[in-house]
Structures are given as structure tokens and as C-alpha cells.
Amino acid sequence: MSREAAKKDILNRLKTIKGHITGIEKMVEDDKSCDDILLQIAAIKASVHKVGLVIMEEHAKECLVNIAEGDCLDREKVIKIIDTIVKYAK
Predict the structure, then answer these.
(1) Concatenated DSSP letters of the chain
(2) Higher pLDDT pick, 40 / 6
(3) Where do the structural domains in the chain lie, given as residue ranges?
(4) Which residue of 20, 24, 62, 69 shows the fewest CB atoms closer than 10 Å?
(5) Distance between CA atoms of 39 and 43, rounded to whole angstroms?
(6) Overall fold of domain 3-89
(7) Each residue of 28-82: pLDDT tens digit?
(8) Closest by Cα among 49, 65, 57, 47 to 84
(9) For residues 81 and 55, is the Cβ–Cβ distance under 8 A?
């Protein structure tokens, strides 16, 4: 996926998440059931996780390609990328 395509995908996903949050606010205002609200929250959590995966994938690809091309062959930068991936995966 190109950087611009990834950016567009991320923004679309975030707009969808924003819409879901607005929907949950309305559900709470309308006293909808906890089951229905929790189901929507679970959908938001999954969507946020997917956004994080796309961002992490694009970040790792960009940094690792730069390293492979000799732009920033730096042990500390590689460790930072790995640390970011591990923190997200927890």
C-alpha cells in the first residue's frame, strides 16, 4: 500500500470510529441496553486496533526500507522500531 493510500485508509477508518462514538453517545442518551452499547464499544475497539496495525505496518516498512537503503543504518533506530511494535502488541 502506498503512503498516500495508507493515509487515506487511516483517515477513513478514523472517521468511521468517530461516527460510531457519536452513535454510542446517542445510545446512552436514549437509554439503550448495555448489551447493545457494549457491542458497539467492542466494534470501536476492533477498529482502533486495525488503525494501529495499519500505522505500525506503514511505519515499520518505511523505517526498515530506509535502513535497507542505507539512509539510517542505526542500531538504536531499529531497536526503537521493535520497541514500538512490541508496545503496541501488548
Answers:
(1) --HHHHHHHHHHHHHHHHHHHHHHHHHHHTT--HHHHHHHHHHHHHHHHHHHHHHHHHHHHHHHHHHHTTS---HHHHHHHHHHHHHHH-
(2) 40
(3) 3-89
(4) 69
(5) 6
(6) Methane Monooxygenase Hydroxylase; Chain G, domain 1 (1.20.58)
(7) 999 999 999 999 999 999 999 999 888 888 877 777 776 666 665 577 777 887 8
(8) 57
(9) no
